[in-house]
UniProtKB/TrEMBL annotation:
Classification via InterPro entries: P_C10 (IPR026317)
Coiled coil: none
Protein name: Protein C10
Keyword Acetylation annotated: no
């Protein structure tokens, strides 16, 4: 739910908010903190969820509250829903959100083999 005082989150607001989030992640101090968390997590998704994601989320919540969203998990969900609705309408929003996703959900290197093994009974 959006906080009182900001009744509508416009397309223009959405673009500005996404750019501000990306800019926040690129502030040297923040970039260093995020990189430390990413290194500490390695290729372990659970560690990433414990170390990197909360830090990135906190930075994101500091930005979205300036656009009328509550600085909590519910506010972040509402912001994400709004971005997704604009993403369908606007290529700039889609590109900015893709950049944001690439930071929040980096590619994971999966060790081979990735295919399931089948035992003698044909069940994995």
């Amino acid at each position: 739910m959006m906080a009182l005082g900001k009744s509508q989150f416009s397309l223009a607001d959405c673009k500005v908010a996404l750019r501000e989030i990306l800019d926040t992640y690129n502030v040297p101090e923040n970039a260093a903190r995020l990189e430390e968390a990413r290194i500490a997590s390695g290729n372990d998704m659970l560690k990433s969820m414990q170390n990197f994601f909360p830090l990135a989320t906190q930075m994101q919540m500091q930005v979205i509250q300036r656009f009328g969203f509550l600085p909590d998990g519910e506010g972040l969900v509402q912001f994400t829903k709004a971005v997704r609705s604009y993403e369908e309408q606007d290529q700039d929003v889609r590109q900015l959100n893709d950049q944001l996703r690439s930071i929040l959900i980096p590619s994971v290197n999966v060790p081979y083999p990735v295919s399931p093994t089948v035992n003698q009974n044909g069940v994995s």
